[in-house]
Amino acid sequence: MERALARLLLRTHAIRGSRIALRQRGSSRTLPQLRHCVAAFSSDIFPRNGLRVLFAAKTRPAWLGWNRGYADVKGAPNEIVVPFMGDSVPDGNLASVLKNVGDSVVVDEIVAQIETDKVTIDVRSSVAGRIEQILARQGDTVTPGTKVAIVAIGEPRAASPPGPTAFTTPSPRAPAAASPAVTVAPPPPKPGPVKVDAAAAASPKADDLSSPKRAAIPQLQGGERRVPMTRLRKRVATRLKDSQNTFALLTTFNELDMGNLMELRSQHKDTFLEKHGVKLGFMSGFVKAAVSALKQFPAVNAVIDGDDIIYRDYIDISIAVGTKKGLVVPVLRGVDGMNFAQIEKMINMLGKKANDGSITIDDMAGGTFTISNGGVYGSLISTPIINPPQSAILGMHSIVKRPMVVGKDIIARPMMYVALTYDHRLIDGREAVLFLRAVKDNVEDPRRLLLDI
Fold it and tell me: What is the 3-state secondary structure (H, E, C) of the chain?
């Protein structure tokens, strides 16, 4: 938006400058001279430093744009402050401070990390120098603009070589009288046999559990640990419980024959990888099948808002990803306009960002329908919970060979149970069952996706 606005302003002032030049000096002005005139006129309005500052945020590498940087919330030049964390994230907990007083930092180096309800946000240094003071402690609740550290601005100094130790061994060539300050202590006496008082050992006080010395001895038995919940775990718990309390949850099941989709993947996976640079998985097939079904049954893609129903004319599918820190749900936006390769690339990119902790709030905002794949962990069947404010979620499960009747024969086929949990206030049972049936038909016969039937 800023880039477009700047371009519009530059073009406007350039046109005005050229018109002024033409009126003053005639229409025979040559093109190089006009360019010089426009450049001079524009430089009066946008100084060189101003342009550099204006486009500084846009010239940063793309990966730095995934996390909003320190420039969003400004402090003093030597202060490291908490950055803007998102419109829906007013505060967070300082999860870790990665630097100590005296440590060197460079520009854009991570100094601390903040744990919010959704993601972990990095706090970066805007200058190079040395940490002079730490102003926040681990576990503190911080808001955008909170001061984390003070930096002594300057080039980061290299670590000084270790100095001489306090205790030095005198040179063997030096005479003993040369170091009168060194005193050699006599060796400690060897411990002799310890006498044990038999009467005291047999005293009942030795087994007295109320004795402080006895109580201090740790007992070798099972125990328990109390660990505070992370903000992400609190957020997940709150949202899922709100979903149960608000929605009229109902789940319908079906089973899919994965044989045709597995055969399609087996035949073309090498060519697909060679052309698109990404592996062909099952998730893209389910995403495309869900998109086709959502177009047939728009109520599954809708949501209740008060006394109204909001029908969405776009399809953004959330993909549930389990990480070490908890469950996150990145969103595939505009998935109805993607092909299989684009879907696989987007899933891989978002999955990597979720696992390495670089996923942002913008990556998880929105979403009209969710797909959760518990089959990667070996789940045979489950009832997924809706991700508010959506109205339905599709659960995939593990593929297991089971005996199935095909024609007049009983054949072992790779089967998968699928589940659709939906908000019964909005979606009737008929629509839910037919939606899941449409997903089943598209997965069992992927050619239907190509023919759009």
Answer: CHHHHHHHHHHHHHHHHHHHHHHHHCCCCCHHHHHHHHHHHHHHHCCHHHHHHHCCCCCCCHHHHCCCCHHHCCCCCCEEECCCCCCCCCCEEEEEECCCCCCEECCCCEEEEEECCCCEEEEECCCCEEEEEECCCCCCEECCCCEEEEEEECCCCCCCCCCCCCCCCCCCCCCHHHCCCCCCCCCCCCCCCCCCCHHHHCCHHHHCCCCHHHHCCCCCCCCCCCCCCCHHHHHHHHHHHHHHHHCCEEEEEEEEECHHHHHHHHHHHHHHHHHHCCCCCCHHHHHHHHHHHHHHCHHHHCEEECCEEECCCCCCEEECEECCCCEECCEECCHHHCCHHHHHHHHHHHHHHHHHCCCCHHHHCCCCEEEEEHHHHCCCCCCCCCCCCCCEEEEECCEEEEEEEECCEEEEEEEEEEEEEEECCCCCHHHHHHHHHHHHHHHHCCHHHHHCC
Backbone angles phi, psi at 219, to 5 degrees: -90, 135
pLDDT at 1: 55
> Does 424 participate in catalysis according to the annotation?
yes
428 is catalytic: yes
38 or 297, higher pLDDT? 297
Catalytic, out of 428, 441, 445, 452: 428
> Which of 93-102, 136-145, 182-191, 264-273 is predicted least confidently?
182-191
Candidates 263, 285, 295, 287; CA nearest to 443 is 285
What is the average pLDDT across 396-407?
94
pTM of the model: 0.60
Specify whether the CB–CB gap between 254 and 418 falls below 8 A: yes
Which of these is catalytic: 140, 276, 362, 424? 424
Alpha-carbon distances of 76 from 125, 135, 200, 300, rounded to whole Å? 12, 14, 70, 50
- Check pLDDT > 90 for residue 385: yes
The percent of residues in the chain predicted with pLDDT above 70, rounded, is: 68
Cα–Cα distance measured from residue 207 to residue 217, given in angstroms and rounded to the nearest whole number: 12
> Does 400 score more than 90 pLDDT?
yes
- Residue pLDDT, tens place only, 412-424: 999 999 999 999 9
